[in-house]
């Protein structure tokens, strides 16, 4: 985690900053990263991706939800979405913290709906305090739905061991989007990249289905160098990030899946995208200044 990222992470939690960012949101930058607020807008985005051969994973935005009514609304949103997916090449991604303090039953309901729709679920990974519980829920879900995907964050020191344990299954490898202390996570971008490469070596040597979630050109190049058959792994990127590269990789015959977030609760997701890249913050500040 760079000083820039840590500072932006901290600033975006300040209520006044949240109000300013939300005010600027109508002006285009949020729309670059978030596919609208409704099921229809999310499915329209998937159709656009599918037109040039890109696959999708749809995320109904929301996290840290405790109110049972909001949990029920989130489950309903996923069921609606999955009812509309039809033949589109889409799976869904779910954050367990959107499903309340005991998320298993709600997650299992979403997995069952995905199964009926002929697709599957990948369970996102949130901050480091949630890793054990999240992997335990994924393990239980897999007893009934073996295709459920896990996410692991290369930045965490523990993750090489997690990769060894999970290498026979569907695993999405990402760098990690949360500010974590040095005692448990690599801090410098070059250390995170090196850790990612080691995790990639483990997953690509395994019998599972690695999902390589990164925009980093060197890591994508490395992933393509293992010589695995194109249908045994996926490259994955975020909606609105390196779109030309997404198209190029799909056109070259690689499985290229795009993470498509949608919904009204976009702030925390958007704040993480700002913290990743100074240029994104620059766009936002310019739109605020233009008023
Ligand atoms: P890095 O940040 O080094 O970026 C490499 C290059 O990509 C940059 O130089 C730039 O060109 C481009 N780029 C990257 N981010 C950009 C941005 N926001 N805007 C514009 N350009 C950008 N994290 C997590 O903790 N839990 C999770 O469950 C997930 N899930 C997830 C799914 C998928 C499909 C992806 C691709 C990513 C995630 N992440 C995640 C986020 C991940 O941890 C990480 O924060 C981002 O992918 C950025 O890291 P990169 O590997 O892309 O490298």
From TrEMBL:
Names of required cofactors: FAD
Alphabetized UniProt keyword annotations: FAD, Flavoprotein, Nucleotide-binding, Oxidoreductase, Proline metabolism
Superkingdom of the source species: Bacteria
Binding note for cofactor: Binds 1 FAD per subunit.
GO biological process, one term: L-proline catabolic process to L-glutamate
SUPFAM superfamilies to which the protein is assigned, alphabetical: FAD-linked oxidoreductase
EC number: 1.5.5.2
InterPro entries xref list: FAD-linked_oxidoreductase-like, PRODH_bac_arc, Proline_DH_dom, Proline_oxidase
Residues binding FAD: 125, 153, 175-177, 214-215
Enzyme class: oxidoreductase
GO molecular function, one term: nucleotide binding
Pfam families in UniProt: Pro_dh (PF01619)
Listed pathway(s): Amino-acid degradation; L-proline degradation into L-glutamate; L-glutamate from L-proline: step 1/2
Residues that, per the record, bind substrate: 95, 272-273
Reactions catalysed: L-proline + a quinone = (S)-1-pyrroline-5-carboxylate + a quinol + H(+)
Proline dehydrogenase domain span: 43-284
Record-given protein name: proline dehydrogenase
């Amino acid at each position: 985690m760079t000083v820039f990222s840590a500072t932006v992470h901290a600033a975006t939690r300040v209520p006044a900053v949240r109000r300013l960012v939300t005010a600027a949101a109508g002006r285009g930058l949020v729309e670059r990263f978030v596919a609208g607020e409704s099921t229809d807008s999310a499915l329209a985005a998937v159709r656009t991706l599918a037109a040039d051969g890109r696959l999708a994973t749809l995320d109904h935005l929301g996290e840290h939800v405790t109110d049972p009514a909001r949990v029920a609304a989130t489950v309903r949103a996923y069921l609606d979405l999955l009812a509309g997916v039809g033949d589109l090449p889409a799976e869904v991604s779910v954050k367990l913290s959107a499903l309340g303090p005991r998320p298993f039953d709600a997650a299992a309901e979403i997995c069952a709906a995905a199964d009926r729709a002929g697709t599957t679920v990948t369970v996102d990974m949130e901050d480091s305090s949630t890793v054990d519980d999240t992997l335990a829920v994924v393990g239980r879900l897999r007893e009934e739905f073996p295709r459920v995907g896990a996410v692991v964050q290369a930045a965490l020191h523990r993750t090489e061991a997690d990769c060894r344990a999970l290498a026979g299954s569907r695993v999405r490898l990402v760098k990690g989007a949360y500010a974590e202390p040095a005692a448990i996570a690599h801090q410098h971008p070059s250390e995170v990249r090196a850790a990612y490469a080691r995790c990639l070596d483990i997953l690509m040597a395994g019998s599972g289905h690695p999902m390589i979630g990164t925009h980093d050109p060197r890591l994508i190049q490395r992933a393509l160098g293992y010589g695995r058959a194109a249908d045994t792994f996926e490259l994955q990127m975020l909606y609105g990030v390196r779109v030309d590269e997404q198209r190029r990789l799909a056109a070259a015959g690689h499985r290229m899946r795009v993470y498509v977030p949608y919904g009204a609760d976009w702030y925390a997701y958007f704040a993480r995208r700002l913290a990743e890249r100074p240029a994104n913050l620059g766009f936002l500040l310019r739109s605020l200044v233009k008023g």
